[in-house]
Amino acid sequence: MPVPLCMKSIVASPESLGARPLSLLNDMRRPDFRHSVTGRLGPIRSITTINGPEATVTDGSATSPDITMPPRIKFKRPDKTAKHIMQILDKEAVEEVRKEREIPDIRPGYIIQMKVVVPENKRRVSVLKAIVIARRNAGLNSTFRVRRLVAGVGVEAVYPLYSPNIMEIKVLDKKKVRRAKLYYLRDKINPLKK
Amino acid sequence: MRTNLKVVDNSGAKRVMCIQALKGKKGARLGDTIIASVKEAQPRGKVKKGEVVYCVVVRAAMPRGRCDGSEIKFDDNAVVLVNKQGEPIGTRVFGPVPHELRKKKLVKILTLAEHIA
Q1: What is the DSSP letter of B93?
Q2: Could you tell me which of B54, B68, B49, B47 has the C-alpha nearest to residue B21?
Q3: Separation in Å, CA of B15 to nearest CA in chain A
Q4: How many whole angstroms separate alpha carbon B70 and alpha carbon A145?
Q5: What are the residue ranges spanned by the domains of chain A?
Q6: What is the topology classification, in CATH, of domain A79-186?
């Protein structure tokens, strides 16, 4: 069975007018994924499986009793479908990483201690004690900004949250803040990590 | 060009002004060498005011991306005076230095540093 991975397959061609629209994600490597998308009640609006005419007819005929009228083909615009697919892929990647490592909830105002593996050094930098001043949510590319005082000089660093270089993150303390981005801390040089 | 930088070693200079970035059209970044002119110096030091020296940028307020996707930035702009071969003139380096110097083969500064950030 071919695995279509091109955008052209979304557009309904004349011969598939009676059948369901083609899917992008007939990925045989992940059979469970199909179920998560198609396991909803009712006709699927955007993408379906490409199992063949016999399977799609059984899916559709369960809900639409009128056989003489052709079932409505509703499908999203290609860019909307693509965004939806990207969202699902992103969530999957995040879950995969979360299964391996335990990543605690990191919010601005937390004081964390992290162990980072620095690729240039090949050794661990333990005791990176810092305060989180910002967090940016972008799925797998979520990053957080961290500020600490090193030898009398303030150092800020941005780390990807799901980076494999971060060995461990431990939350030491939670400060009460009323902001999402604590950039005002740059002006304060209170060494007590306020 | 014309950036005032702090000197963080004990070579005698206090402030230098950049007059040329050696590599790169857009200017020098963290870990690059520059040519600078000494603007302010301690009375008895190895360099005098008005001398033209080579320096290595060890702290920059502009964020520098690392190969693993992280970024680092410091609160000030600081520099260490070196000679043409890349060896520091002073004998001590104050404050943290980044890992980027290792790739540039400036190991002497790394060994003298207090902390490698």
Answers
A1: B
A2: B54
A3: 17
A4: 10
A5: 5-68, 79-186
A6: SH3 type barrels. (2.30.30)
Q: Which residues contact B115 (CB under 8 A, 6 or more apart)?
A: A150, A151, B95, B96, B97
For the cut 70, the answer to whether the pLDDT of residue B57 exceeds it is yes
Q: Tell me how many residue pairs between chain A and chain B have CB atoms under 8 A apart.
A: 60
Question: Domain B4-116 belongs to what topology?
Answer: Ribosomal Protein L14 (2.40.150)
User: A78 vs A7, A51, A90, A164, B113, CA distance in Å?
Assistant: 7, 21, 18, 33, 55
Express each pLDDT in B29-43 by its tens digit: 888 899 999 999 988
- Verdict on whether the full-model pTM lies above 0.80: no
Local structure of B58: helix, strand or coil: strand
CB atoms A121 and B99 under 8 Å: yes
Q: Suggest the residue from A123, A145, A147, A155 to mutate for an interface test with chain B (most B CBs closer than 10 A).
A: A155
Query: How many angstroms separate the CA atoms of A190 and A147, rounded?
Result: 12
Q: Which residues of B touch A (CB under 8 A)?
A: 59, 63, 66-76, 94-96, 99-100, 102-103, 114-117
- Report chain A residues whose CB lies below 8 A from the CB of B95: 150-153
Of A120, A150, A153, the CB nearest to B102: A120
pLDDT digits (tens, 9 = 90+) for A88-111: 999 999 988 888 888 888 889 899
Angle at B5 between CA B2 and CA B6, to 5 degrees: 160
ipTM above 0.90, yes or no: no
CB-hemisphere CA count at 13 Å for A80?
Answer: 7
Q: Is A96 helix (H, G, I), strand (E, B) or coil?
A: helix
